[in-house]
Each structure stands twice: as C-alpha cells, then as structure tokens.
Specification:
By secondary structure, the chain is α/β, with parallel strands linked by helices. It has 30 helices and 27 strands. The strands form 6 sheets. It has an 8-stranded mixed sheet, sandwiched between helices. Strands 21-24-23-22-25-26-27 form a 7-stranded mixed sheet, sandwiched between helices. A 5-stranded antiparallel sheet has the order 1-2-3-4-5, with helices on both faces. It starts with 9 loop residues before the first helix and ends in a 17-residue tail after the last helix. The relative contact order is 0.10. The structure holds uridine-5'-diphosphate and 1,5-anhydro-D-arabino-hex-1-enitol (LCN). The site of uridine-5'-diphosphate (UDP) has 20 residues, from helix 14, helix 24 and helix 25.
Length: 816
C-alpha cells in the first residue's frame, strides 16, 4: 500500500490518496460543506466521516495507507463551499496547505498566506478580500541566517551554531578573523580581557599562543596568573584565560585547536570559558514578584519560583566561572519587576530587595505609571501592556545607574518581560534571551481568529504581537521542553503555533517565527533540592512543620485555610496543588474523584489552591473555579474524603507537605488541561511521590509514561481516574510497586531536571550567541528596523485599547 513520502508534497500525494476511496471521500466532502462556512478540527472531520461511512471495517480501510497518513496529519480544515482547505502537519515544524474542491476532489497546493485569507473569510470577509490588508512577514529577513532542517534537531540551536561556526571559521587563516575581532572587543567596564591590539590578526594570535603554551609548560600547574601576568601582557594577552597556569594552558590549547582546525566540541568548550557575562538583567514585570507570601496568588506561580531558583543557580555558576577565569569581578543579577503600592502584605512595595541565598543579586521594583500617576494595585497579566514601555524606560535608567554601565545579558520572562527585554536590549545593544513559561496562544482554542470575541477579557492581539516581536528580536530563546517549541507528533508546539496565524481585521502573520531557527534551545529548569528532597531523607526533614501539617491535613476544623476533612486517616492521599485557574483543572480532578467510587474507596483527595470566598477574588477565572469547587463538593458529597486547602505560600512547608503525602504512600496528580512545563510535577518527583500528570504539554516530556510516572488525559476523566485507581489497587497487594515509581521518578529528575545543568547551559548560550549576533549584525539590524516599525505603527495602537483602572478602582484587596 502507498504511504506518504517526505520527498513529495501533500498536494502531489492527495489526488492519489483520494483515488483509493473516491466514492466515500466525495460523500464525506459533501457532508463537510453541508453546514456552510466553518472551521473544523480533526476529531470533527472524523466524527462526520463516521456518519457518512457507518461500517467500521470500511472506515478503517478508507483511512489506511496514504490517505490515513495525510488525514491524521490534518490540524484544521476551513470550509468555504465548494472548497475545503486544510492545514496539514506531517511532522513537527513542517506545514503544508491545500485546497480541495469538494465537487471533483481536485487538489491545489496553496501558500500559508492564501490559507489564512481563506480562513479569514469566515470571520471578516471584507478584510480577507482587501488586497492591502496588512501582512507581516518576519521570515523575509531570515535569508542570510542558516536554519536547521530536521525536526529532531529543533531546540538544539547551540549545537547547530557551533557546527556552523566551525565551518565558517575554518579553511583559510583569515576566516577566523571575526573571532579575533570578537576577542579584541571583550572587556569588563572598559578593562580589556583576553587579548589586546598586539594580537590583532589570526597569525599573530596563533604564534603567541604557541609561545605562551611552551612558557606555561615550564610552570607548576597551580602557579597563579598574577605571577606571569606582566609577561603575558607584553605578548598581548590580557586577563580572563584562567586563574592558574594549568587553566590558562587548557584555554589556550582549546583556542589553538579552534584556530588550527575547528570542531564543534572545542568551539563550544572555548566559548564556555570566555569571560563574556558578568551582569544580567532579568525582567518579570507582572504579578506579585517576591520571595515570601506571593505564591498561589493569581498570575504568581511557577514563574516566580523559576526565576528565584534560576538566579541562585546562575550566580553560583557565574562565581565559579569568574574564579576559574582568574578575574576579580562581582557578578550582578537584577530581577526587574513592578512595584505595587497595594502590596497585600507582601514586600512588593519595596524598591530593592536582596535575593535570599545569593551574594550579589537583587530584586529591583519599578512602578507602573499612568501619565505620571503610579498605578497602585495588581493588574492581571492580560492587562499589563499599557505600562510596559514607560516601565522599561524607567528600569533602564535605574539599571545603568545600579550596574554602573550596561548589562551583558538581558533575559525576559513571559510576554510582558520579553517585550521589556526587547525594548531595553534594542536600546542598549545588548545580547537578549527570552523565556516564555507559557505562551497563551495555544491555551485558548482559536484565540487568534476569535480575538474580537475575547478581547474584552484577554487582549490577545497585544499579547500575540508582543510575543512575535520578542521572538524575532531576541538572540536566543530558552525553552523548558521540546514540546514547548515544536509540540509532539499530533500537537503543534507553543512557538510553532506562531509560524502563521491571523488576527482578522488587524493583521495576517504569514511568517511569525520559524522553529528551525538556531536561536531555539532547550534548558529545563529544576526544583530547589534543599527544599524538595526525598521523603526518605529523614535527618533533613523539616520537622518543625509536623504539627502544622497534621492540622492542615487531618483536623476537622473548617476555617479560612481549609475546608472539608478526611474521615479515614489511614488511606493514602492523592494530592494536587496549583493556582485556581481554569486551565489547571483542579475542579476536573475533583469531579473525576467524585465520580469514581473505586478510587474514593482507595484514597483521600487533598487539593491546595485558591481560597474559598469567590467575592474576595479579583481574578475572573479564579472566581468561577472557586464556585465550581464548592458545587462539586456538594454534588458528589465529598465531605469526609476531601480536604481543600487554600493557596500556600511557604515553600519550605510545601516541600514538607509533599513528603508527608509520600509518607501516606500517596501520589501527586497534575490534571491540567494544558501545562506549559509544570514545576509542581518535578517538585513532587523530587520528594519521591509517584506522579500522574497531564499528557498535554511539558509533563508529557518530564515523565516517561509507565516508567517514571504516568500520563493522564485531562479530557478523559474516567480513563484517568481508572489509571490512578489501578495503581493504588496494585500497591495494596504489592507494596514494592509504590517504591518502584517513587525511585524511578527521582532517577529521572537527577538525570535531566536540575538547576546545575540549566545554569551551565544558559551561560554557554549567553557566550555563544553574543558572538553569533555580531556575525549576523546586518541581518539583525534590518529585522530590528522592521520590528520597530511594526511596534510603533501597530502595537502601540493596540495597547491604547486596553483599559486602565481609575483611581477609584484602586481598592486594596485583603490577602487570601
Ligand atoms: N505553588 C505554591 N502554592 C500554591 C500553588 C502553587 O507554592 O498554592 C507553587 C508550586 O509549588 C510551584 C509553583 O507555585 O512551585 C507553580 O508552578 P507550576 O509550574 O506548577 O505552575 P504555574 O503556576 O507556573 O502555571
Ligand atoms: C508557567 C507555567 O504555566 C508552568 O507550566 C511553568 O512550569 C512555569 O511557568 C515555570 O516555567
């Protein structure tokens, strides 16, 4: 039977595929166009096919071979009778678009732009037909930068860049001159590093390296750099090569190898030794960003945890590198967030706060200004756009003052932080990195084409424009998982969904971002292992929380912190903890539990999230979820089996809570409809809790299903609760079963998800991409001008439509 070959386009293959079952396919297409204009997802196409071909054997036959290959790669169909257009994704990152005439099944390959126009006809016909509707094409500036070609290489940008540099710098001696020029430009606050003008050509540098190496061979390995600094300076070498004769020699050997015949490994190794990053700015404007009492508040979740842990790991790695480079420099990492006067008992109204567990890192808070009035209260992450430009200007001035010069690297977090990073990095000419945590576009179905319906709540155009601008402006992108970039076999990645999309009436993005761009890199975060460690490490456990946790879980008292109770204390506990957002689906888990008698017989349920009075919430989604939780507890008569605990802000106590759940031989369940990464999953696994987590998003990659935990389908509650119940049933007869999953989870974490690995990778990227941006200066500049135009003419206009709270709206809300 014929199958799909990658060498042929879908448009070439489709007529052949239709021939297999022409009769049935014609009937299917007639059905598809019956209801007129609409978009359809794959499951709808299959459901309607089921109505047309009711015999299952026949249906299976139709979907075998070539047609099946094509059909199951469809992401979306747009019906515009008599045509049906399809967007088809044969593998991650690869998209094709075709238009089929339902009358005769003729097939035509179309461009992304034509597909989008076809789709716009459903939402805004006049605009779709406007020949001058705004088309945005960031890809037009990418012609000179090389791209990856394999789906499997996506996310390994640094590997590709080092290979590409290897070929670019090899061959004739002069080819390596850009590297020499780059080394000449390195300095710390004006003081030269690595080499000076004496060694301004490849030839001179190569010779000097040989002489220096011979000299170093005659010294004891641990001879400090200071002992030979003066002679080295005369030869043209400056500080930065190493702290001892041995380290200097290794670094020099590494460069000599690169200059002689470069290979990617020496290249990466050499860049990891270069003194390029000392001062880092990290933007995270929205939410309550603080070190105490902020977690679990709306919009204040994993991003805060991630950044604080990231800062600690980065500072540690920076201090190690600086020492090894033989330098006497204090690194500075500053997290820039917004200052919130109505701080609800947190320290978010304080301008400067030292970061615990670090020597030199701080949080700098800059207020949001509205015509020079300070915005006093928290605003949702969806509403922050009007303030970002002014906020960044103020922040830039403060940073230049605080750091006594420019930072070396600017990292953005989430849409607002990435936009701020773009504006600051563009202005100062500094290397930029972006981190999404979550891109909202994939969280809400059709959030692009239906933007008008959703605008009052979410202002998605601002968000998607800002995201696209930042993705294009940045030098490198740090993703937590592969799926974040390019999804899985069936589901497009978060970044990938920005490749081509349209906001009818506003702009048609025909090329938003290319996931084959070598700027994409995967560096997964970890969990703080001094807080989240295995429940079996008895001597390290935080016993001071024992009685508080006992009360939290098992007392029958109902108060502001907990409601419900657990009648049978001997049962294991299934536990979940998240912000009470719709997408976290804590209500879904409660419902699955409520419905599954077998599961209720086996385990208790403990939920941490939100608080209990919907009127106290200012967050739209949270209010609805609070009400739903109460309804479900009533509907399924869960009292006696559920304990619902309000959002918890003490990380140490939470660490101990996970471990107490492990003591009960329980499990962690992460039921989110979609989870970008899922820090709670790795926290739970670090504590030795067997974990069941959503198959939608990051957790599907963190856990190897059936080995280091289990995947559950949030859209199929019955099946998910069955998987959990089966596990606990098996544990009853085979206690080793629980231990096996506890240990395998831990193994997985230590191999792939630690902050040490993360910090090492990130600083290597900082170093390598600082050179890469120099090499691609012209292309970068051209793109930057395009971005500025787009930002000024389009984005700023959109931002004006986001409402700004008045002074009267500024009533403080009590802390939950
Ligand atoms: N968290 C918390 N208290 C709560 C809810 C969450 O301390 O009431 C913490 C949780 O331990 C984790 C983070 O907030 O460190 C949530 O991160 P995750 O990646 O799971 O989700 P996000 O909130 O970022 O979407
Ligand atoms: C935001 C999310 O939604 C989570 O999935 C991530 O784990 C968190 O940020 C940290 O990156």
């Amino acid at each position: 039977m014929a199958t799909l070959k990658r060498s042929d386009s879908i448009a070439d293959n489709m007529p052949e595929a239709f021939k297999q079952s022409r009769y049935h396919m014609k009937k299917c297409f007639a059905k598809y166009i019956e209801k007129g204009r609409r978009t359809m997802k794959l499951h709808q196409l299959l459901d309607e096919m089921e109505n047309v071909i009711d015999d299952q054997v026949e249906r299976t036959r139709v979907l075998e071979g070539l047609l099946g290959d094509i059909w199951f790669s469809i992401q979306e169909a747009v019906v515009n009778p008599p045509y049906v257009a399809f967007s088809i994704r044969p593998s991650p990152g690869f998209w094709e678009y075709v238009k089929v005439n339902s009358a005769n099944l003729s097939v035509e390959g179309i461009t992304a732009a034509d597909y989008l126009k076809f789709k716009e006809m459903i939402y805004d016909e006049n605009w779709a037909n406007d020949a001058n509707a705004l088309e945005v094409d960031f890809g037009a500036f990418d012609f000179s930068v090389p791209h990856l070609t394999l789906s499997s290489s996506i996310g390994n940008g640094i590997g590709f860049v080092s290979k590409f540099l290897t070929s670019k710098l090899s061959g004739r001696l002069e080819n390596a001159q850009p590297l020499v020029d780059y080394l000449l430009s390195l300095n710390h606050q004006g003081e030269k590093l690595m080499i000076n003008e004496t060694l301004n050509t490849v030839g001179k540098l190569q010779m000097a390296l040989i002489v220096a190496e011979v000299y170093l061979s005659g010294l004891a390995k641990d001879t400090p750099y200071q002992n030979f600094e003066i002679s080295f300076k005369e030869w043209g070498f400056e500080k930065g090569w190493g702290d001892t004769a041995e380290r200097v020699k290794e670094t020099m050997r590494c460069l000599s190898e690169v200059l002689q015949a470069p290979d990617p490994i020496s290249m990466e190794n050499f860049f990891s030794r270069l003194p390029t990053v000392f001062n880092v700015v990290i933007f995270s404007p929205h939410g309550y960003f603080g070190q105490a009492d902020v977690l679990g508040l709306p919009d204040t979740g994993g991003q805060v945890v991630y950044i604080l842990d990231q800062v600690k790991a980065l500072e540690e790695e920076l201090l190690l590198r600086i020492k090894q480079q033989g330098l006497n420099v204090k690194p500075q990492i500053v997290v820039v967030t917004r200052l919130i006067p109505d701080a609800r008992g947190t320290k978010c109204d304080q301008e400067l706060e030292a970061i615990d567990g670090t020597k030199y890192s701080n949080i700098l808070r800059v207020p949001f200004l509205v015509e020079n009035r300070v915005l006093r209260q928290w605003v949702s992450r969806f509403d922050v756009y009007p303030y970002i430009e002014k906020f960044t200007q103020e922040a830039t001035a403060k940073i230049l003052d605080l750091m006594e010069g420019k930072p070396d690297l600017i990292i953005g977090n989430y849409t607002d932080g990435n936009l701020a990073a773009t504006l600051m990095a563009g202005k100062l000419g500094v290397t930029q990195a972006t981190i999404a945590h979550a891109l909202e576009k994939t969280k809400y179905e059709d959030s692009d084409v239906k933007w008008k319906e959703l605008d009052a709540k979410y202002h998605f155009p601002c968000q998607f424009m800002a995201d696209t601008v930042a993705m294009n402006a940045t030098d490198f992108i740090i993703a937590s998982t592969y799926q974040e970039i390019a999804g899985s076999k069936d589901r497009p990645g978060q970044y990938e969904s920005h490749a081509a999309f349209t906001l009818p009436g506003l702009c048609r993005v025909v090329s938003g971002v290319n996931v084959f761009d070598p700027k994409f890199n995967i560096a997964a975060p970890g969990a703080d292992q001094s807080v989240y460690f295995p429940h079996t490490e008895k001597q390290s456990r935080f016993t001071q929380f024992n009685s508080a946790i006992e009360e939290l879980l098992y007392s029958k008292v109902v108060n502001d912190e907990h409601i419900g109770y657990l009648e049978d204390k001997k049962k294991p506990i299934i536990f979940s903890m998240a912000r009470l957002d719709t997408v976290k689906n804590l209500t879904g888990l409660t419902e699955w539990y409520g419905k599954n008698k077998r599961l209720r017989g086996l385990v208790n349920l403990v939920i941490v999230g939100g608080f209990f009075d919907p009127n106290k919430s200012k967050d739209r989604e949270e209010m609805a979820e609070i009400k739903k939780m109460h309804e479900l507890i009533e509907k399924y008569q869960l009292k006696g089996q559920i304990r619902w605990i309000a959002a918890q802000t003490d990380r140490k106590r939470n660490g101990e809570l996970y471990r107490c759940i492990a003591d009960s031989k329980g499990a962690f369940v992460q039921p989110a409809l979609y989870e970008a990464f899922g820090l709670t999953v790795i926290e739970a696994m670090n504590c030795g809790l067997p974990t069941f987590a959503t198959n939608q998003g990051g957790p599907a990659e963190i856990i190897v299903d059936g080995i280091s935990g289990f995947h559950i389908d949030p859209k199929n509650g019955d099946e998910s609760s069955k998987i959990i119940a089966d596990f606990f049933e098996r544990c009853k007869v085979d206690p080793g079963h629980w231990n096996k999953y506890s240990l395998e989870g831990l193994k997985r974490i230590n191999e792939c998800y630690t902050w040490k690995i993360y910090a090492y990778k990130l600083l290597n990227m900082g170093s390598m991409y600082s050179f890469w941006r120099q090499l691609n200066k012209e292309q970068k500049l051209a793109k930057q001008r395009y971005i500025e135009l787009f930002y000024n003419l389009k984005f700023r206009e959109l931002v004006k439509k986001v409402p700004i709270p008045t002074e009267e709206d500024q009533t403080p809300v009590s802390n939950p």
